[in-house]
Amino acid sequence: MKKKAKEEKLINILKNQIKTHKKTFAIYVLLRLLVIATLILQLIHRNFENVFLCVLTLILFLLPSFIESKFKIEMPEVLEIVILLFIFSAEILGEINNFYNVFANWDTILHTINGFLCAAIGFSLIDILNRSKVLHLNLSPFFVAIVGFCFSMTIGVLWEFFEYNADKYFKTDMQKDEIIYRIDSVTLNEEGLNKAVAIKDIVSTTIFSKNGTYVINGYLDIGLNDTMEDLWVNFLGAVVYSSIGYFYVKKRDEKSLAKKFIVELKN
User: Fold this and answer.
1) Global pTM?
2) 226 and 263 assigned to the same domain
3) Could you tell me the residue range of the domain that residue 97 belongs to?
């Protein structure tokens, strides 16, 4: 009985999506077919880690509709499409098809979009509360924008915590290492002073380990640059949306770009 109820619930969610957002549903179907095709290929190659990523992606695709149904909210079509494309770009293109390594700025682009989207979600949540007749809030447009910005940055920081812990405890490399050619380190100060010693124009570094010897043309930065770059572009995306959102709340211009990313309560 429980299984039937769950199946009926999923069917109702999909039917609701077809009725309200035809373009979104078309993109959803196309992306879902691409993911299923990828899943089959990964099964053939017995790459079960990627099979798991495909299954996870299919589940994540259901989230927008599930959230709409569960919390009785209405997502703009543009927001839903961007979320679906973001999930596909991160998991299928980025992880499985190695776009993170093939395209140097792939990770940077996704983190910028993430900052923009999270600011939009945080902005929407506080805007809904601000307009609620039950809570009687009267927050200024500036404060609403600040909350949206802070929400986005918090999500960005939590994600970097996740990447760090995944690398530390599960031996992944989510914080992509980077080759650099200069370091400034207090540790290398022979006098023990709190003054950084600059080592410039590093030609190569040799790493000796039980696994073998590795020669690097430069010096290996262990994820620090990647983390800070991710946070900076998250900051940029958050600032852009929060700024647009500020003027939207001030004027309530229905043609504003911000409106296309604002979640509304269903009547």
Assistant:
1) 0.86
2) yes
3) 1-103
